[in-house]
């Protein structure tokens, strides 16, 4: 009887070619996490409500070993409470979620659709099992490792983008990605379907590295529904900002040092120039005083006979020292006191700087005064 039913369903689908189902043949399932078996079907009848359709998932070897049925009592005991349909059968969605996955969930699973009869419909209900389109689960004991994508090196002070992604088969409980640095505002998360039955969650981190971040480790951690985690790490290399600061700053420092040194040297030169000028002035004063001293000394040491008028004056002084009777014997002109005429005096004796001449003048004047007396 069972064989006939299966043959009838297969022949109906083969000859009619109207009932079709589409599933993923192989899919990964992480133990203790969850998995979604994508499934879709179509039929030749008019649009039917979900209430008139009954979806069933069973093992490929035996269709009565159900892993999902709307009547939970008809489900295998180790699958009870762990399976549910996603979407609406009336919209052709027959996807199945299994959570959590156990080691015993390995094998192939097939979808079956049944059309429920109405109260006045006495015909045999339509029942189709898609044995040729079954899903085989591949059990994963360890979670997949996330993949990092980033540039070779970051530049100081400029935005740097790092991408972390991990594939999974459970879009209803997608893994979460976290970073060892940055804030939630720096992260953008995207969850997309790569191809039928496989999804990828991607986290994009944008950071602005500084010089202190050079050779720092950046880690991306993936946390799955089962609370199992896996991570990947890379080392961040930060280049200096593309500028000439490392050239300008030392150059300015050198130029500043040169200017300061030049200023100090100029002040010292100016100071010593003033000092040299003072010493030169002192030297000129001493030179003038020395020349004056030598001149005075040379004047005192000059012989008396150097003055051509000196013999006459000395004779006149000698006659003045004689008594009046004696002077008269010499001649009548000598009886009177001798008073030299102002015009007869040497011009150099009027404004004389030589001290020796001044002394002679004072002696002569004294003799004249004495004669008058």
Describe this structure in words.
This protein is an alpha+beta fold and 373 residues long. 30% of the residues lie in helices and 30% in strands. The protein is built from six helices and 19 strands. The strands form six sheets. It has a five-stranded mixed β-sheet with strand order 2-10-9-5-6, covered by helices on one side. The protein is rod-shaped, with a radius of gyration of 66 Å. The N terminus and C terminus are likely disordered.
Task: Please name the defining characteristics of this protein.
4-stranded antiparallel sheet, rod-shaped, alpha+beta, 5-stranded mixed sheet, 6 helices, disordered C terminus, 373 residues, single chain
Question: How would you concisely characterize the structure shown here?
Answer:
The protein has 373 residues and is α+β, with helices and mostly antiparallel strands. The chain is built from 6 helices and 19 strands. The strands form 6 sheets. The protein has a 5-stranded mixed β-sheet, covered by helices on one side. The protein has a 4-stranded antiparallel β-sheet with strand order 11-13-16-15, with no helix packed on it. A 3-stranded antiparallel β-sheet has the order 3-8-7, with no helix packed on it.
């Amino acid at each position: 009887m069972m064989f006939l039913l299966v043959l009838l369903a297969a022949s109906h689908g083969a000859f009619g070619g109207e009932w079709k189902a589409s599933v993923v043949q192989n899919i990964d399932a992480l133990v203790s996490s969850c998995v979604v078996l994508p499934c879709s079907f179509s039929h030749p009848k008019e649009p039917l409500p979900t209430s008139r359709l009954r979806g069933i998932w069973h093992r490929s070897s035996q269709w009565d070993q159900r892993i999902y049925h709307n009547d939970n009592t008809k489900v295998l005991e180790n699958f009870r409470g762990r399976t549910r349909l996603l979407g609406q059968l009336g919209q052709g969605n027959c996807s199945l979620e299994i959570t959590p996955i156990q080691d015993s969930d390995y094998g192939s699973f097939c979808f079956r659709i049944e059309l429920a009869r109405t109260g006045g419909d006495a015909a045999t209900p339509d029942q189709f099992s898609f044995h040729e389109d079954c899903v085989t689960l591949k059990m994963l004991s360890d979670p997949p490792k996330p993949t990092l994508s980033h540039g070779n090196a970051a530049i100081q002070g400029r935005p740097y983008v790092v991408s972390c992604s991990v594939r999974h088969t459970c879009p209803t409980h997608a893994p979460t990605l976290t970073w060892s640095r940055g804030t939630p505002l720096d992260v953008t998360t995207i969850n997309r379907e790569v191809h039928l039955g496989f999804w990828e969650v991607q986290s994009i981190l944008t950071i602005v590295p500084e010089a202190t971040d050079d050779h720092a480790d950046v880690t991306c951690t993936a946390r799955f529904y089962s609370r199992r985690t896996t991570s990947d790490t890379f080392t961040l290399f930060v280049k200096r900002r593309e500028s000439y600061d490392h050239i300008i700053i030392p150059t300015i420092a050198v130029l500043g040092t040169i200017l300061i040194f030049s200023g100090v040297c100029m002040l010292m030169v100016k100071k010593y120039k003033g000092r040299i000028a003072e010493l030169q002035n002192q030297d000129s004063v001493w030179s003038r005083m020395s020349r004056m001293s030598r001149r005075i000394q040379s004047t005192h040491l000059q012989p008396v006979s150097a003055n051509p008028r000196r013999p006459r004056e000395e004779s006149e002084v000698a006659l003045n020292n004689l008594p009046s009777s004696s002077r008269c014997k010499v001649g009548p002109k000598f009886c009177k006191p001798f008073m030299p005429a102002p015009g007869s005096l040497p011009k150099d004796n009027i404004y004389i700087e030589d001290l020796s001449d001044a002394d002679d003048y004072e002696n002569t004047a004294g003799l004249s005064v004495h004669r008058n007396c």
